[in-house]
Amino acid sequence: MKLSLLAVLVTFLSGLALIGIAQAGDSPSMPGITGDYKVLEPISHGDLMIFPVVSARSHDTSEFITLDEGIRSGEVVVTEVGNLHSGMRRRPYQPVRGGAEVNRLVLVNNSRHPLILLAGEVVTGGKQDRVVGKDRIVPAESDPVDLSVFCVEHGRWTETSSKFDTHASVMLQPSVRMKAMADQDQQKVWDAVGQSRSAMTASVEAAPSTSGTPGHGSPGTAGGNIYVSDAEAVRELSNTTSYAKARENKAVQSQVDSIVQPMQKSYESVIKQLRNQNAVGVVVAVKGRIVWADMFASGSLLGKYWPKLLESYATEALTASGPRGEISIKDAQAFLNNWQARHEVVDSEPGLYRQRELIGDRFKAFQLTSLLAKASFDVHLSKMAE
């Protein structure tokens, strides 16, 4: 009887221990997130505040290539549906039928490495500029893959080139990126692009010019005139529906750079100090309000995306409106710790990748997990505040 009672007690205590391990480990609502992300003191400039995030975990991501790397090397080809030909493919293929479509492109990965696509990456060319609609992984030496995309250039439907490019390395700013990722609605993407371009134009109009000669532009700059160079920039912004061209506008780029450059210097300084830690992501706040978080499987993978991500965050700060709030490191850590979801949607390609979308209390999150045999881990995690 005593032995039986002892066995029951041991079983009970073991059960409590297992419960404690489960609570301290992976979140039941989002497997793979262990809560070991640590938010550090923020870097700030103007309306933009970035909290570096370190993690005890790191993975070898050297086998993956990014979209920028693949297109730059020529091993990744993105084209309109119906434009694929034998010169774009190493092996024989079944032609993709149909003509060009707003929300479909075809991608071929001729590289020997799997390709990571991130939602929000912009490709320019074809009949319209497009943006990748969701995170995914494309296998090495792939057959043609249909991509779900959204147009970010409303109005043009004439081909500028047969293949797409990422020469500008543009990532949509968070407020536009979320329309593609979370809402999956073309009209909402167009509306968000239009609002962003209008805000860019207003920012250029309101900024004092430091070059050029006074012209007869609209009032709004120092002295009541837009200088000729800025007037030209405003005309360019007014005459394009392309998000990428608006971001490449010289006046807009100058304003973005004025935010990016000091932030980049501060970030590099912090990373040097964190040499023995593993910086894998950031929490982003604009005007004292958390808007976004991006985390990666390794610091090196974050490094590959960092320049275009930082510019996207700076563009958000440049175009944001509304009053300023107050944000602390404690608030940023709380945002990163909360993964409790009310609803979950899973999209998967067996043996390749799985993407989970979580809808929680005032947030949506997306988790891209590689299912490849030699690289089975979470590749990218993004979280947006609502």
Verbal overview:
By secondary structure, the protein is an alpha+beta fold. It has a domain of 255 residues. 34% of the residues lie in helices and 25% in strands. The protein has nine helices and 18 strands. Strands 1, 2, 3, 13, 14, 15, 16, 17 and 18 form a nine-stranded antiparallel β-sheet that branches. Strands 5-6-11-9-8-12 form a six-stranded antiparallel β-sheet. The chain has a three-stranded mixed β-sheet with strand order 4-7-10. Strand 17 and strand 18 form a beta hairpin. Helix 7 packs across helix 8. The radius of gyration is 23 Å and the shape is globular. The N terminus is likely disordered.
Short structural description:
It contains nine helices and 18 strands. Helices cover 34% and strands 25% of the residues.
List keywords for this structure.
single chain, alpha+beta, 386 residues, nine-stranded antiparallel sheet, six-stranded antiparallel sheet, disordered N terminus, 9 helices, 34% helix
